[in-house]
Amino acid sequence: MPSIYWLDEARDAFEQLSPSVQREINRRLNLVRQFPELYPETEMGRYRGYRRFPVLRRFLVYYRVLPGSRNCIVGAIRPARAQPE
């Protein structure tokens, strides 16, 4: 099964979230392990080329499928209302 890796920024943001939000992110990442290209790619902004999924309508998780594999890297967790730079 593909692996999920984390950038430090994303791991730090994850650790500051409530346990219920963490569980939901982990649930979604288990789907990503099975279907890495499940979510759409971002076409503009700071996270262009990353895929993203919403979590409880409060956060967006940005991840990228690593070239030549099905492994993924979580790049950021952002409030859903914030616009990426």
Molecular structure report:
The protein has a four-stranded mixed sheet with strand order 1-4-3-2. It is globular. It is an alpha+beta fold and 85 residues long. The model has no long low-confidence stretch (mean pLDDT 92). The chain has a single domain (4-79), classed as RelE-like (YaeB-like fold). It has helices spanning 8-15, 19-34, and strands spanning 4-6, 51-55, 59-65, 72-79.
In total, how many domains does the architecture comprise? Answer: 1
Residue runs with pLDDT of under 50 for 5 or more positions? none
Shape: globular
CATH topology (fold) name: YaeB-like fold
Number of beta strands: 4
Order of SSEs: EHHEEE
Radius of gyration (CA) equals 12 Å
- Tell me the β content: 25-35%
Secondary structure tally, helices:
2
**Which secondary-structure class do the elements indicate?**
alpha+beta
Spatial order of the strands forming the largest sheet: 1-4-3-2
Span from first to last CA? 33 Å
